[in-house]
Amino acid sequence: MPITTGVIAHHWAFAVFCIGAMGLCSLMLLSAFFLGGKARARAKNIPYESGIDSVGSARMRLSAKFYLVAMFFVIFDVEALYLYAWSISIRESGWIGFIEASIFIFVLLAGLIYLVRIGALDWTPGQSHRRVKPGTITTISSRSLQKL
């Protein structure tokens, strides 16, 4: 058997799969075009979420802290997946695996402590932090309250 015939015979299932997938996608797109609604109205083109009309502009600026928290979530969520995989194979990994997982958790905790120390998880604005100098706190007596 020639080489080209052997290659085609070997990969015929993949070719049938690709042709079938493209045909199915084309069929779904064409059926949606012909069977879909054709009504046009101004109210149909207005976006809404859960039946509530949108208010404001879609170009609203968001604080970078939202993205920062999203990145922290993804990072720590992926690490939780690693720990889940480790917990499934805990008997096979033994004490060496336990020590490695402990080091892994320690590094994660060190990263979380660092984030808390630099204020990356602090949502209050910088102006609202009240810095009190040592020795400036005084007690208010009842006489000074009466004067107010």
From TrEMBL:
InterPro entries named among the record's database cross-references: NAD(P)H_OxRDtase_bac/plastid, NADH_UbQ/plastoQ_OxRdtase_su3, NDAH_ubi_oxred_su3_sf
GO molecular function: NADH dehydrogenase (quinone) (non-electrogenic) activity; NADH dehydrogenase (ubiquinone) activity; quinone binding
Compartments where found: Cell membrane; Membrane
Known EC number: 7.1.1.-
Keywords attached to this entry: Cell inner membrane, Cell membrane, Membrane, NAD, Quinone, Translocase, Transmembrane, Transmembrane helix, Transport, Ubiquinone
Source organism, top-level taxon: Bacteria
Keyword Metal-binding on entry: no
Broad EC category: translocase
Membrane topology, record value: Multi-pass membrane protein
Bilayer-crossing regions: 12-35, 66-88, 94-116
Keyword Nucleotidyltransferase: no
Catalytic activity: a quinone + NADH + 5 H(+)(in) = a quinol + NAD(+) + 4 H(+)(out)
GO cellular component: NADH dehydrogenase complex; plasma membrane
Subunit structure: NDH-1 is composed of 13 different subunits. Subunits NuoA, H, J, K, L, M, N constitute the membrane sector of the complex.
Family, similarity comment: Belongs to the complex I subunit 3 family.
Role, per record: NDH-1 shuttles electrons from NADH, via FMN and iron-sulfur (Fe-S) centers, to quinones in the respiratory chain. The immediate electron acceptor for the enzyme in this species is believed to be ubiquinone. Couples the redox reaction to proton translocation (for every two electrons transferred, four hydrogen ions are translocated across the cytoplasmic membrane), and thus conserves the redox energy in a proton gradient.
Name of the protein: NADH-quinone oxidoreductase subunit A
Organism taxonomic ancestry: Bacteria, Pseudomonadati, Pseudomonadota, Gammaproteobacteria, Enterobacterales
Gene field: nuoA
